[in-house]
Specification:
By secondary structure, the chain is mainly α. The chain has one domain: Ferritin (Up-down Bundle), CATH 1.20.1260. Helices cover 84% and strands 0% of the residues.
Length: 165
């Protein structure tokens, strides 16, 4: 696909995000299973449910744009998921392991926050206000997840992990 217009770029990035969210649907159950902290495990499970909704919203966005929902492999998410898998494989103390999982998850959240923020700005610029509103819901949830991960890390997991030293 040749990117001639901002509309082309918007569609390209939506396909990238569609791939990213679908990759997360496979990665989050593994992260939940690898968590020793019950609150972290529950957080990953909750975000899995949200991610299913994120996929549905992207499908609605494609529909609003009159385009088929099609993914283009998100190489960035592929790398971030691989980093998360590496953490899962590490031999570490439980709290240290959970701190690593939070780090991997926050890298994903920050990528998604940047990506959604950008496509929302483009959608607004192009007059696709319904698409922008729809994806803003997802952006808000991504930010909320990031904040929850920070709170959990700072209030419990990092404290516990620092005592393992």
């Amino acid at each position: 696909m040749k990117l001639k217009t901002l509309e082309d770029l918007l569609l390209h990035e939506l396909r990238d995000l569609y791939s990213a969210e679908k990759q997360l649907l496979k990665a989050l159950p593994k992260m939940a299973k690898a968590s020793s902290n019950e609150e972290l495990k529950a957080g990953f499970e909750e975000h899995l449910s949200q991610t299913e909704t994120h996929v549905e919203r992207l499908e609605q966005a494609f529909e609003l744009l009159g385009k088929p929902a099609r993914a283009e492999t998100c190489k960035a998410m592929k790398g971030l998921v691989e980093e998360g898998s590496d953490i899962i494989e590490e031999d570490a103390e439980p709290a240290v392991h959970d701190a690593g999982l939070i780090c991997a998850a926050q890298k994903v959240e920050h990528y998604e926050i940047a990506s959604y923020g950008t496509v929302i700005a483009w959608a607004e610029k192009l007059g696709h206000s319904e698409v922008a509103e729809l994806l803003s819901e997802t952006l808000d949830e991504e930010k909320e997840t990031d904040e929850k991960l920070t709170e959990l890390a700072e209030s419990a997991i990092n404290v516990e992990a620092s005592q393992d030293a």
